Amino acid sequence: IWEWLYPDEDYRREITEKVGDILKGEEIERYETIIQCKSGEEKVISWTSHPLRNEEGEIIGSIALGSDVTEQKEAEERKEFLNTLLRQDLRSKCQTLSGYLQLLEDADLSDEHREYLRKAVAAGREADEVLELARELEEIEETKWVAERDLVKVLEQVMEDISNLAESGNIEIEKNYSESIGSVKGDYSLNTLFSQILKTRIQTSGCDKIEIEAEKKNGKILVKVEDNGAGLSQDIVDLFSRKPYRGVTAGAGGARYYMIGEIGKHNQAEIEAHDSELGGARFDIHLEKA
Questions:
Q1: Of 68, 92, 111, which marks where a domain is finished?
Q2: For residue range 58-67, what is the model confidence (pLDDT) as tens digits?
Q3: End of a domain among 89, 109, 142?
Q4: What residues make up the domain containing 46?
């Protein structure tokens, strides 16, 4: 039956080794295999197993449960394919829109209409950045390794990367943390996490001051990023608390804040959003110490 279910010899050997590990007591959750049915059709089976023990605690066997998740996987693949097409189509339209807006910059416009043009260009640029962040998030979620990152080096690199944006907006950034704060768990996207928080606040909140603090707290390292811009709506705050989405964050940066939260989860970071004593928003990022 093994040769029938798993006709490929190399794949069958891999599955056989996994079964051997299960019989030795290994527990698995949602381990997927592809089996071939009698009709030749392939099915994706998700397996969960637990060892069976006697009264002395010795392993005497294992119980495994397999569920057919073929339709679910196909639905996920269709959804991902559609999302990819939508991103490509929207990016193409954003580039076309940007081209037309650039042509208008040479036109003889009144001050009022030139201000409208400026806002349209900024909105188009932000839409393109959201699409790029969505593409980047997809790559980030495929990364499986976790490294030891020097937090100070991460923050300094991020502030260097956004320095031009901060200077053009006359944004004052204050730092308050020790050079020896230590290292945290995360991968390369830890830089993306902090740069996106700062970029989003600079571009959408109207702030002119940002404070960054870091301290050791409750066995973790807490980084606080707060500003004096516009506060966050309750719906944005709820995105970080994992409360049900009510569908009213459109136009308030909901997509960007959601993706920031997902990048945080990928780096084992807990993010909380609060009102800031400066008058704007405060993000508390709890990072695992390395």
A1: 68
A2: 888 888 889 9
A3: 142
A4: 2-68
Does 32 or 2 have the greater pLDDT score?
Answer: 32
**CATH number of 216's domain:** 3.30.565.10
Count of domains for the chain: 3
Instruction: State phi, psi for 107 to the nearest 5 degrees.
Output: -80, 160
Q: In what order do the strands lie in the sheet with 42-53?
A: 28-36, 42-53, 59-68
Q: pLDDT, tens digit, for every residue of 136-179?
A: 888 888 887 888 999 999 999 999 999 999 999 999 999 999 99
CB 198 within 8 A of CB 210: yes
Name the pairing type of β-strands 42-53 and 28-36.
antiparallel
Using the CB atoms, write b or e for 161-182: b if 16+ within 10 Å.
ebeeebeeeebebeeebeeebe
Residues of the chain with pLDDT > 90, as a percent, come to: 44
